[in-house]
Amino acid sequence: MVGRGRALTGRRAERGALDRLAGDVRAGQSRALVVHGEPGVGKSALLDYLAGRASGCRVARASGVQSEMELPFAGLHQLCTPMLDRLDRLPAPQRDALGVAFGLRSGQVADRFLIGLAVLTLLSDVAEERPLLCLVDDEQWLDRTSVQVLAFVARRLGAESVGLVFGTRVSGGDLAGLPELPVNGLPDTDARALLDTALTGPMDERVRDQILAEARGNPLALLELPRGLTAVELAGGFGLPGAVLPGGSPGTGGVEESFRRRVDVLPADTRLLLLLAAADPTGDTALVRHAASLLGIGIEAAAPATEAGLAEFGVRTLFRHPLVRSVVYRSAAPAPRREVHEALAEVTDPSADPDRRAWHRAQAAAAPDQEIADELERSADRARSRGGPGAAAAFLERAAMLTLDPARRAGRALAAAGAKAQAGALDAALDLLVMAEAGPLSEMERARVALLRAQLAFTTDRGGDAPLLLVQAAVRFEPIAADLARATHLDALVAASLAGRLASPGGHVLDVARAAVAAPRPSRPPRSPDLLLDGWAANYTEGYAAGVPILQQAVAAFHSGESADEDLRWLWLAAMDLWDDEHWDEFTARYLRHARTSGALSELPLALSGRAYVLLFTGDLAAATSLVEELRTVKEATGSKLVPYSALFLAALRGQQEEVSALVEATGKEAVSRGEGIGIAVAEWTNAVLHNGLGDYPAAMAAAQRALHHQEYPAIRYPGIANWAAPEFVEAAVRSGMSEAAADACRWIAEMTAACRTDWALGVEARSRALLAEGDAAERLYRDAITYLGKSRIRTDLARAHLLYGEWLRRERRRTDAREQLHKAHRLLETMGITAFAERAGRELRATGERTRKRTIATSAELTAQEAQIARLARDGLSNPEIATRLFISARTVQYHLGKVFQKLGITSRSQLDRVLS
């Protein structure tokens, strides 16, 4: 920027904050900061100040340029280019992800969070040599993908010696929540001092006061407004404008007008040269001069712009301020704009920079042009291949506008809508769908419009209108694409299952299931998703028993090699619905492994949640805790809104009443707002688990009833939650003297177990029936429950069977036998960390006259949550880079926290972690 050498006036507090940031980075810490304020307030000057104070640090810079906002990863590439010689030092998945994003190699498009992790690792690696300061100016004009990645990196910084500082006009957006440094106008004394530096002669006090009042401390206004006044006006005040700053941001409206007046008086060739420079985002003076020569503009045209202090044409073209570029471009008439873009397109290398050339050609077009539209479509394909859906959408939207044929225009608008949706610009996607629907569409395209509308509804609200819209889209696909129709029917059925009672009319799970039954058969041999659709549809329309054999085929089909790992997304739910703990365990482990190894980070929250549930049911609360903490990290990093299902169940098993209450309340509100009825059911079921553990049976029964109500018990059998809520209801109802209601629930459970016949299901049924039985029948059922559950992986239910059997024996006055069962229950529950039920077993033991001793466990309570998480992963054998990948932090941050762990626990090596964390 022109004039960067000027010393800062005032800004003591701001300079102090930046000095502290630089000091922290030099000391080994990492810091992120958002410097924000109106145009011209001095953000760039403060970033320059920080760069000048960065002794001992490497400085990397990038600046947003308005005309580059649609090019994916342009800003990120600008920042990282000097460091790309280290790309091969990154872990392979990260190296490939960043290489594809920057167009350095071909390959599968990576999740932007994996790209963010790659950038974090790259910056950390660079900072190992010396501390690194990354300064990103004009963030508001960076391409969206770069902003998202850099915001991700800023939130994951730890102990890498990296500083990441943004300059932007308005805080919030993707940078919301990061530390901020607001930059306001200068106080009066500093403003007067700065104004004096811009004066070349005497100034009338009235003029001075007017400028000071209307500049409102804006440094750029204080420096530029005097340039717009004549010597006579400065000295005597004659002709002083009534409003120096007509509208706009305080302090900037008049500056823009001042810049505009200075541009207007320049020679015509100079104005056109400035317009060329404003239209070129690269700052490449050679390119601008080459384009200028095509327009008959000589090198001498640059001198008046330089003399006016508007721009410099050196090795790079630099405007005095981004406002100058903006004023030059926006004040130009359409014809000159098209003229300069055409010249720039002519001199841009079509092989080295085809996308920028296509964009210039598009801006130069005055009417629809099929050739340019086709070129933009190819640019959109390249943007998609690099993981830039926002850029792809911009190219496609412009291509649609330049397409004369109505059918092709509608098709391109539809493709642009899909790209906008993928980029998260949901409102823009809906606008483009309206544009697409205005043209002639094929039946396939109309079906895709319906599908995209449904997917947008599902993204916004899990329930609500989404199931009905998905069914309508599926029906449109049926006569033209049977496989797409079936896939959409499956999505609709899952959406309806999630919505439950909160689905809109016509989107209830029975409506959706009936539509699925009528769907065409697959055009190829059925794969797991086809069988899932048929099995769940049969479950809802004909009953649980009708769906079981088909769902079992779906599980078997996966093992036959007919399905891919991607099919695991819903397949593990089928295993859960079948009470098939063996395949539930296998599928959730494979799904999590697939999400990690493939870089499908958008899948990771669901995969972590599903796996944590298995570990909680199998009694491995330590491993489940690690996954729940990792899930929190992933949700924070990716912005996932997944309901904290696994955290709820974990807190309930631990007997953490306050945490469960808070989570239940928050989950209920979130579920209602999103139309996600299953969220309410999960919250109430975990509430029932908690209160059964605490021995508060009326509260447990009420919670279980609410969970079953939201699962439409007994009429409908939703997968999972009702299966688990019914046994909780039986136990609580029996203890509350509601045996008849308990018996109804028990018969409901037995109908399932008669169909699936797994050890887990049969064990839960036997345990529930034992609660209602008496004498020898009850004892036989308790023993059957323990036998069945002992053959399953579900240790939590096994421990609770021992507890219930022990409680029954004590009430039968068989104290010795009761002690044996209660000791087994207590030992299992306490070892697993299922605190409330363990304490219940302890109370029962004491009632038999037995004394209980609480196990002494080495504690790591003095560790922070992140330190404990890192310590557990290190104990499990993960390397620092592997831990860093799991937790979306750098390996250096892992090493830093492990040092703290060793110090706090008094150990010196990883091999000792198992002992202190047992």
Question: What would your notes on this structure say?
Answer:
The chain is mainly α. The strands form two sheets. The protein has a five-stranded parallel β-sheet, sandwiched between helices. A two-stranded antiparallel ribbon has the order 6-7. Mean pLDDT is 88; it is low at 1-5 and 236-251.
State the assembly state of the protein chains: single chain
**Which stretches are low in confidence, meaning pLDDT under 50 for 5 or more residues running?**
1-5, 236-251
State the helical fraction: 55-70%
Strand order of the largest sheet: 2-3-4-1-5
The N- to C-terminal Cα distance equals 59 Å
Shape: globular
Number of helical elements? 46
Helix/strand/pairing category? mainly alpha
The portion of residues forming beta strands comes to: under 5%
- The count of DSSP E runs of length 2 or more, i.e. the number of strands, is 7
| Rg, alpha carbons | 33 Å
Helix and strand layout, with pairings?
Blueprint: H1 12-26, E1 31-36, H2 43-52, E2 58-63, H3 74-80, H4 92-101, H5 112-127, E3 132-137, H6 144-156, E4 162-168, E5 180-182, H7 188-197, H8 205-215, H9 219-224, H10 231-236, H11 253-264, H12 268-279, H13 285-294, H14 302-307, E6 311-313, E7 317-319, H15 322-331, H16 334-347, H17 354-364, H18 370-385, H19 389-401, H20 406-422, H21 426-437, H22 443-460, H23 466-477, H24 482-499, H25 509-517, H26 528-542, H27 544-559, H28 568-577, H29 581-597, H30 604-617, H31 621-638, H32 645-654, H33 657-674, H34 677-694, H35 697-710, H36 721-735, H37 739-756, H38 759-772, H39 775-790, H40 795-811, H41 815-832, H42 835-847, H43 865-875, H44 880-887, H45 891-905, H46 913-916
Parallel strand pairs: 1-4, 1-5, 2-3, 3-4
Antiparallel strand pairs: 6-7
